[in-house]
Amino acid sequence: MPGLGGNSSGVGVNATATADLMTEGKVRSLDFEAVYDELFPFVWRTARRLGIADWALDDVCQEVFLVVHRRLSEFEGRSSLKTWAFSILNNVVQVHRRTQGRKSPTYRAGAQTVDLETLPDHQSGPDEILSSAQAARIAQELVDQLDDEKRMVFVLAELEQMPVSDIAAALGANVNTVHARLRAARKAFTLAAQRYRARDTWRAG
Amino acid sequence: MSTLGPSEKGLLEALRERDEPTEQDRERVRAAVLSRIAVAAAVGIATVATSSQVNASSGSSLPLQSAHPTGAALGEHAAGPLGQSGLGQSGWWGASATAKLLLASVAVVGMGAAVVLWPAAPVSSADQVAPSRSVPKTPPVLPMVPASAPVAASPEEPTPVAPSALPLELPTPTPPARAATGSDVSVSSLDAELALISSAQQALQGGAPAKALEVLDQHAREFPRGVLSVERSGLRAVALCAANRLPEGQSAGQAFLSRNPRSPLAARIRGVCRLGEGSE
């Protein structure tokens, strides 16, 4: 087991895994607690944005970190931690979706779906003024309408500001594919936004 | 149209600002993760320890071979060396985590090991890391000796144990069932996967590659596309070679190495399977 011991934090459980990396000739010690702290917000946000319903979010995040812990010694620093974690998140999300028996992010449905038709305090008209919360809900609904492939690339690029090369590494795809998918995702998102506005205008008119 | 217009960008900015987890979210998830890690490790140890006990005491077939543990076999070990059944102690860790862990233990029971013992083991350590229970769910009630157990698998995966009148009552308020039994419990298949992989590792470390292979075959049946499939493949190659099944082991090893050349298992596979350095 590489690199156990050293500067593990005082957690007091046999849960702390450390990994020594050779990165550019330097040894970097990765403490699970530190990795957790660095990655948690990203994993939480991204799981939500990939369509995990609130009631399942804790579980999915826990599972991602279980795998992170298990594979920490394999992380070689060739990609960023975020990229590496995303591929684990993606895997866990896909397995989760399979066990949920659904293929689209409407597994968020039930408790969570925002029905755009019935958003209560939305003002209609061409110069809509939305509260930040309303805007966020609409944005998420539009993201949910993207297909899985586009959504992944879109979330990483537009919401996490991950560079395309990192996204390609995370998805195991080539950079050109990611560029093309991102263009298509932006197009789809824009069209969905236009449909939403058009529907809203119709409703108001 | 490869860029987004201003109103779309505005929507996305609002979304970017939302979704941040709270400190409470962070700590709650951390505590649950650390508990589950400790349990997964303990399961591996307990499974191997207990199965060798059963072997010694009853002379029965290896529990790991049987997917249908008898109530008797479990009963006899319900108060085994790993401590008393502490399942009523819902205070150890968050109830939802407990529910999942108990079902993971039941899943491993479905595999044949009397893993009902293990929750007693990491209690103290789990207490250290999961001090606050902010998850407002009711504690689980689990009888100590299930005659057979539903496996904590997804609906589409095969259940090796017949779903019986197992009086499992794990009230979990919100999420719909993911377990094959359709009971109203949120069960994580990853816990079950971790339990299996951990016990396979323990078996290998204990010099019991045949046992490891049985466990790994179980994982392959229940979680063919599981999150830990890569771990399974690597360990399987090690186990085959360690069990002196070199032709199969080397072939599995080569296949693994070509897909995962930098895996930490690579050196071990090359050693045990006697594959050269350049074998990728």
Task: Walk me through what this model shows.
Chain A has 205 residues and is mainly alpha-helical. Helices cover 59% and strands 6% of the residues of chain A. Chain A has helices spanning 32-49, 54-71, 81-100, 132-145, 148-159, 164-171, 175-204; strands at 18-23, 26-31. Chain A has a two-stranded antiparallel sheet. In chain A, a hairpin with a 2-residue loop joins strand 1 and strand 2 (26-31). The longest helix of chain A has 30 residues, at 175-204. Chain B is an all-alpha fold. In chain B, 52% of the residues lie in helices and 0% in strands. Chain B is built from ten helices and no strands. The N and C termini of chain B lie far apart (44 Å). Chains A and B meet through helix 1, helix 2, helix 3, helix 4 and helix 7 of A and helix 1, helix 2, helix 4, helix 5 and helix 6 of B.
Task: Summarize, please.
The complex is a heterodimer of chains A (205) and B (280). Chain A is mainly α and 205 residues long. Chain A has helices at residues 32-49, 54-71, 81-100, 132-145, 148-159, 164-171, 175-204, and strands at 18-23, 26-31.
Biggest sheet architecture of chain B? none
| Spatial strand sequence of the major β-sheet of chain A | 1-2
Order of helices and strands of chain B: HHHHHHHHHH
Q: Enumerate how many helices of chain B there are, as a single number.
A: 10
Poorly predicted tracts of residues of chain B = 54-187
Indicate the radius of gyration of chain A in whole angstroms. 20 Å
Report the strand count of chain B: 0
**DSSP strand content of chain B:** under 5%
Average pLDDT level of chain A? 76
Helix content of chain B: 40-55%
Rg of chain B: 21 Å
Summed over residues and divided by their number, the pLDDT of chain B gives a mean of 64
The helix/strand class of chain A is: mainly alpha
Q: Kindly report how far apart the N and C termini of chain A lie.
A: 68 Å
Q: Total number of β-strand segments of chain A? A: 2
Q: Which bin fits the share of residues in helices of chain A?
A: 55-70%
| Structural class designation of chain B | mainly alpha
Largest interface: A-B, 55 and 60 residues
Main beta sheet of chain A: strand number and arrangement?
A: 2 strands, antiparallel
Unreliable runs of chain A: 1-28, 109-114, 119-126
Number of helices of chain A: 7
